[in-house]
Amino acid sequence: MDAESTKEVDEVALASVAAEALGKGSGDIADAFRELDMENYDEEDDDGLGDAYYPSSELDPYLKDKDDNDSEEEEDMIIRAEDSIIVCARNEEEISQLEVYILEDTEDGPNLYVHHDIIISAFPLCTAWLDCPLKGGERGNFIAVGSMEPSIEIWDLDIIDEVEPSLVLGGIDECLEKKKKRKKKPKFKEDSHTDAVLGLAWNKEFRNILASASADKKVKIWDVATGKCSITMEHHSDKARIKPYSLFYHWLEDIVQAVAFSHHVPQILLSGSFDHSIVMKDGRKPSHSGYRWSVVADVESLAWDPHTEHSFVVSLENGMIQGFDIRAASSSSDAELKPSFTIHAHDKPASTISYNPSIPNLLASGSIDKMVKLWDLSNNQPSCISSRNPKAGAVFSVSFSQENPLWLAIGGSKGILDVWDTSSEAGVAKKYSKNIDKKS
């Protein structure tokens, strides 16, 4: 027996011993060794592909699973038209950003997760959504951000990992800054705000129009299609006041805190200030001084009633909420215009309010006292139908959902975004059961 035959016998014998240990027959193992043909393992098979490759990943059967995973990941990154979105402005460890959340309706209630985030340049103070084409582009999904800077940044929410805003309104003129030899007051772009932007409002009818309110005491109207300021208004008075709870200022002058366009007559704009007044201006009468309502404390926020064209509410630094009827202002701009109702709503500043877009007379309010409350305003006789401490800290913002009208988004000083399904509250279910049935 030659050496080669001896080697093969030894291998078969070894395989037989191993097979017996496993309780298997030696014949099967020996046949398996012969089929492997290990001696010719490295030789190229003339019928194989050799060094050839598939012209595309789609044709490679071994990449099918990978492609499927990539497709699923790409699908997850798409924001669909039917998705409910919440944009949360946040500052944490000196990093300011916008977090874009997707809100899903599940059997267990609202499910909230971050889709992507956008790093912004300064501490955010206010936002406004808009869909106007920017500089001749397509209708999109944009958000305007006011901050501690005098500029307004507009970001495209549909672009992942965006590093620059699509448009910047106003701000410091960097070209002029570089030419300065000595450190002096900053040079601003033409028609820019010169201080922090505290309030923003988008006009849903004239979709290229954005209003802004600033600590420089001015209200500006911007055309986002051209990136230019078309109107500047200075109709709030001048005196210095202290705002003890403010995170941003120790001494605050009569800044303009909030602006709001009417839902029904889009030429009408409200502005609220720390001069203890609300002013209504009509763009169809530019020479008119407007109508003024006096209140007893600094204005925190404004909201038009989406269900009637003649009513709005204002929340104040002393915790009160007041409602007004603009029909009382039709006779004289000098008359004392009294509120339709007054609510002693909170123990500390009522920082935010939101009308329900689908259910008449339902208003939400949030406060520095950490509470969120729901109010029924029927017949100008307000009543509190539910309240909650969402554990979000001082509440800075509340907003009802457009798609699910009884969901309320809540943001506060703890950096927590909470969604309150108010339909689960007994007072809401009892009062608005018909509306809930219609929406379900």
TrEMBL record:
> Positions of the region Disordered?
36-74
Record keywords: Phosphoprotein, Repeat, WD repeat
Q: Does the keyword Glycoprotein apply?
A: no
What is this protein identified as? Transducin/WD40 repeat-like superfamily protein
Q: Which GO terms describe its cellular component?
A: nucleus
Cross-referenced PANTHER family: PERIODIC TRYPTOPHAN PROTEIN 1, PERIODIC TRYPTOPHAN PROTEIN 1 HOMOLOG
Q: Does the UniProt entry include the keyword Ribonucleoprotein?
A: no
Q: Which SUPFAM superfamilies match?
A: WD40 repeat-like
Instruction: Please give the biological process terms from Gene Ontology that the record holds.
Output: rRNA processing
Pfam families to which the protein is assigned, alphabetical: WD40
Q: Which SMART domains match?
A: WD40
